[in-house]
Amino acid sequence: xxxxxxxxxxxxxLISSLALAQDVPFKSSNFKDDKDxxxxxxxxxxxxxxxxxxxxxxxxxxxxxxxxxKAAIIELDKAYKFNPKSAEVNFMLGNxxxxxxxxxxxxxxxxxxxxxxxxxxxxxxxxxxxxYQLKEDFTKALKHYSKFEENTKSKQIESLxxxxxxxxxxxxxxxxxxxxxxxxxxxxxxxxxxxxxxYSPCISTxxxxxxxxxxxxxxxxxxxxxxxxxxxxxxxxxxxxKWSSPKSMGAPLNTTNxxxxxxxxxxxxxxxxxxxxxxxxxxxxxELSGANWETPIALHRSLxxxxxxxxxxxxxxxxxxxxxxxKKIGNSSKGxxxxxxxxxxxxxxxxxxxxxxxSTVNTKFNEGSVYMHPDGxxxxxxxxxxxxxxxxDIFVSYKKQGxxxxxxxxxxxxxxxYDDYFYASTASGKYAYIASxxxxxxxxxxxxxxxxxxxxxxxxxxxxxxxxxxxxxPIKNVQIASKVQVNKNSLTVFKGKTIDAxxxxxxxxxxxxIDNSNGAKIETFITNSxxxxxxxxxxxxxNYGITVEADGYLFHSENFxxxxxxxxxxxxKVVELKNIKKGSTIALRNIFFDSGKSxxxxxxxxxxxxxxxxxxxxxxxxxxxxxHTDNVGSESLNSKLSQDRAQAVVNYLAQxxxxxxxxxxxxxxxxxxxxxxxxxxxxxxxxxxxFKIL
Length: 694
Fold this sequence. Notes:
By secondary structure, this protein is of the alpha+beta class.
């Protein structure tokens, strides 16, 4: 009797369970009591079904679904609220979320759909595989992908194109990458992010400013899926080292249409953005004038074509724009690749033909964003191809002998099975910023900060100590985090501002960078008229002369000798410009002599020629060239050496056509130091050539 009773109870529970999990299809016979409600819900169901089919078709053909899946979710959610027991509605919601920035929401719907009807859709295992791949449960994901492959008709597999094989390989790459995590912290920049999308971080070279894009509430009209258009925002590091509350950059950068910032120039005076003001997206450029950004201007048609041009990056020397463009096939676009386009004769408004970056970097899948590091030889980009572990992954490629190297995955946890892209690095390479829609953020795409640990330290424990510790407290699955290749190239960031030496007010000045080895002009730019601020980066292996000139002021010069392998340096300097008036003295920092000699070296020519120009421009100017030494050696020898060096400069100026009556040579030896002679750096400052207005 007890056995019979137990069987009856078990059967009753099973029947109750099946009844609770029973699929309720969208049929009028299931909703006789609410025919009007059913009619409305059915319309949303059918519209959502149509949008899902369209969106999947875009994905299988490596095309951008845009807002198709978001629109499908809006329709299906209304159908779901009317009939949450529909296996089809649950399945399609799971399908749709997997192709949005809220991918993690897909799995609960898929589980519910299969619970209601195990045979709900032939693609159930495929989408379950994607969901478990996001969970980093690659074993379970591969199990579902294999089950789908075994039980699905060949035509259905063919409709996926290369997707199934790609997903399986992503799981294999994922297991490999997660088993050897890189030495880096990944932190959500919570003060910048919101529940909406934040993406495309553009970092200033000194790492003190981030310009980014967000579709957070901005007072504009919402689009067809209830979202605001993308606007450009800025945040800066406070004195306490925290990011300030983001501020909209306002007009003319932001309009009622979508705008996306893609890169700040290395000196912070220009910005690349992309936006749609017609039938497609084009790349625009805006320049900083004083405190305001100017109206963005579309780049040349050699770059902006009938296809979509989106994420773009400056090259180090500003001679090229590297950008992402859709590939036009007939009347439709299929996938995106990375291209480059060079400026003609240094003019901003003329470009040569755009060319592909090459098949080493570009794949048959989508390339998503691109960023050129200030060293000019390192390119970071995002891609669905290569050895991605799912979605977009970030890769790095190095330029070697004019060609890009095989891309390297930046590794886990920088990359995840979610979409990780928009890499932007500080000049030091120690910090970088990305955007990701990984689970656990504040919502949608969030901005994350990467902090690289650098090389691992040598273990202090001996083998015996390690074994004893293991016996006392056994260690399982010991893994050593893999190294991250942080950029080792020498780089100096020279930042500061130009001000009047007397009033302290900002001065708009022209900065010229010269290669002292050959006198070639590398770059010229203007400091900010409102703040006097400037920012530039100098790569290794050169001796640079930097001159600062402004109308009505004596020019200022600096010298940087950056050795190869010297590492990263940051120089922050206030350049005080002096008025051209009697008594003003200026140091000539790019005048070079061999030790103990008075013969001018060829590296001095650029500085001296600028002095010649000043003397020719101001015909009434009479100057004293003064030579100075440190206190090493006898004062008589120092006095003679300083006099001879001053005379060598006067002779050079005279040979260039300057009347000797306007020139006086005076050697002061070590009698007028500007720094202590007790240190090598102080003695170096004292060894100088100056000119004084008489």
